[in-house]
């Protein structure tokens, strides 16, 4: 009997990565425009296309000239100072499931990418942030404008538009990878950070446990006992890596899960509140309103 052998060149049993994109927009604003102090538990990318803008992040000023870009880390308060001239900028807020990638952005020593900086891409050689933004707007700008138009009713047109939006998400995910690659290679990420590998691994394990038990009530003491450290050390390591406390991270997960359930299922508000282990639908509705800014019902209707 002949025996045949198979030689595997490579094998990845499972790979899953999702990306959350919020408030993606390109804006033209007049001299004197400003934006108030606020924070959010996802990252923000800001690119100055023309003019200049002064961003204050956690009490530190960053002046963006034409071609400069900035990553605002998760959980940090930030605002835009009154503009000294007419300005155009491109912004999107993002989060990715890969905890290691979140860490890269969170512990980067200098979140500012000057216009002359370039990041390496194995596939594309030298990569320019400015060229990427211009190319992105040229390719997807018209689609994004149409996406805002609620008059698009033809099924065929909606389906075609959804494919373009999928390609857009893939393009941004690739861009986020290039930005992460820049911070790894060009800022000697770990050399500038005081945390060691075991502390970073601890934070990643805690984040994993929070994701795993997102449908339960959070007990930090039990979580600390599970990973074998005291509560204060756990919270300190976690905040250094993710920029927010474990409880705030858990809140972010619950809000994200609730959004997905409201968008993609027919579960009632009561059923969702039970699934996420809230004591009542009223408690869940109050949580969602405080976290997202809309009631669950209004969010569901707006997502349709």
From TrEMBL:
Gene Ontology molecular-function annotations: DNA-binding transcription factor activity; sequence-specific DNA binding
Key words of the record: DNA-binding, Transcription, Transcription regulation
Bilayer-crossing regions: none
SMART domains to which the protein is assigned, alphabetical: HTH_ARAC (SM00342)
Domain HTH araC/xylS-type: 204-302
InterPro entries: Cupin_2, Homeodomain-like_sf, HTH-like, HTH_AraC, RmlC-like_jellyroll
Domain of life of the native organism: Bacteria
PANTHER family in the record: ARAC-FAMILY TRANSCRIPTIONAL REGULATOR, HTH-TYPE TRANSCRIPTIONAL REGULATOR EXSA
Stated name of the protein: AraC family transcriptional regulator
Species assigned in the record: Paenibacillus piri
């Amino acid at each position: 009997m002949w025996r045949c052998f198979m030689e595997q060149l490579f094998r990845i049993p499972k790979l899953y990565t999702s990306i959350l994109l919020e408030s993606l927009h390109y804006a033209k604003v007049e001299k004197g425009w400003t934006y108030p102090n606020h924070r959010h538990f996802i990252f923000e990318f800001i690119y100055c296309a023309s003019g200049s803008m002064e961003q204050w992040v956690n009490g530190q000023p960053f002046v963006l000239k034409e071609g400069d870009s900035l990553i605002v880390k998760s959980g940090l308060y930030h605002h835009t100072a009154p503009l000294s001239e007419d300005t155009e900028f491109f912004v999107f807020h993002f989060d990715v499931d890969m905890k290691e990638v979140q860490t890269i952005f969170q512990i980067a020593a200098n979140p500012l990418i000057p216009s002359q900086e370039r990041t390496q891409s194995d596939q594309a050689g030298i990569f320019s942030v400015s060229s990427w933004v211009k190319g992105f707007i040229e390719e997807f700008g018209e689609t994004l404008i149409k996406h805002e138009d609620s008059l698009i009713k033809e099924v065929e047109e909606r389906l075609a538009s959804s494919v373009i939006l999928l390609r857009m998400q893939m393009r941004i995910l690739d861009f986020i990878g290039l930005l992460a690659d820049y911070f790894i290679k060009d800022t000697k990420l770990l050399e500038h950070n005081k945390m060691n590998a075991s502390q970073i691994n601890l934070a990643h394990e805690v984040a994993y446990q929070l994701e795993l038990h997102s449908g339960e009530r959070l007990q930090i003491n039990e979580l600390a006992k599970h990973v074998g450290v005291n509560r204060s050390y756990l919270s300190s390591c976690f905040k250094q890596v993710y920029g927010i406390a474990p409880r705030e991270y858990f809140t972010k997960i619950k809000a994200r899960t609730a959004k997905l359930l409201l968008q993609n299922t027919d579960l009632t508000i009561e059923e969702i509140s039970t699934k996420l282990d809230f004591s009542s639908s009223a408690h869940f509705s109050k949580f969602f309103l405080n976290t997202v800014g809309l009631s669950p019902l209004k969010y569901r209707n707006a997502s349709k």
